[in-house]
Design a protein that fits this description.
Order of helices and strands: HHHHEHEEHEEHHHHEEE
Distance between the termini: 68 Å
Oligomer: single chain
Number of strands: 8
Strand content: 15-25%
Largest sheet: 5 strands, antiparallel
Structural class: alpha+beta
CATH superfamily of the largest domain: PAS domain
CATH architecture of the largest domain: 2-Layer Sandwich
Strand order of the largest sheet: 5-4-8-7-6
CATH topology of the largest domain: Beta-Lactamase
Shape: globular
Helix content: 40-55%
Number of helices: 10
């Protein structure tokens, strides 16, 4: 697997040089050679050893970051990462056996802790949460969103994948509030932060909880849970 990854990056470097030389023939040839390599690297679904999973995630993340300035490439590469996430991280409780999916008598919606076990995301439970849940990859691209967040963004979930997190929280809040916290989360910290924002002319308070998600000792991203409440700060009397 590592040999395939090394071969891909060697040919990828050749492709970049061919683009700079405006060598259309070489660009077309190398582009044709890269796609089968990507498929070979990421198609090892039956290979469940931890080293292979780590290499696959690392490759998908590196490719996403390498081509982050090209929106078309971001969409394609985010799809590749999403494929790995669905293969290794996302589970669906509806697919489990009856003994495993016993009825939960606990009143109210499930808790985030119930939906995330050993780094695996239970998509069925996450979609029942009232909180907005996203997973942000290093490079600040979204590769998972629950239905609550998608409804809040008024977009289908698949259209959120690969988009930069700053697009949805605003550049100011991203730079001053969320980016520093995400960077700490990528380093392994779990943390919370709160900031105020304007939504449809009303001030809301956004509470964020962040925690790192890892698989096979490889950082996959930051789990971000967002809850919006009305601003209850006392306003001064006129």
């Amino acid at each position: 697997m590592k040999a395939l990854v090394d071969l891909f990056w060697a040919k990828y470097g050749d492709l970049r040089q061919a683009v700079e030389r405006e060598d259309d023939e070489a660009v077309e040839r190398l582009d044709r050679e890269l796609d089968p390599l990507i498929k070979a690297i990421l198609s090892g679904q039956g290979l469940q050893d931890q080293a292979t999973i780590r290499i696959q995630f690392r490759f998908a993340l590196d490719l996403l970051n390498e081509e982050a300035d090209d929106r078309g490439c971001v969409r394609r590469n985010a799809h590749l990462l999403q494929m790995l996430v669905e293969r290794y991280l996302v589970t669906d409780q509806s697919l489990s056996s009856p003994s495993e999916s016993a009825v939960d008598d606990t009143p109210g919606p499930p808790d985030v802790a119930q939906a995330i076990v050993d780094g695996s995301l239970d998509d069925s439970l996450l979609n029942k949460l009232p909180e907005r849940v996203v997973v942000v990859a290093p490079g600040y691209r979204i590769f998972y969103s629950n239905e609550t967040n998608a409804r809040r963004m008024e977009m289908p979930r698949e259209e959120l994948i690969g988009r930069h997190f700053a697009e949805f929280v605003g550049l100011h809040h991203f730079r001053h509030d969320l980016q520093p916290s995400l960077d700490r989360c990528f380093e392994g910290d779990s943390l919370t932060l709160t900031y105020a924002d304007k939504v449809e002319g009303q001030t809301v308070v956004v509470h964020c909880r962040m925690s790192p998600i890892t698989r096979s000792s490889t950082l996959i991203g930051a789990l971000v849970v967002m809850q919006e409440t009305s601003d209850r700060r006392r306003r001064p009397a006129a």
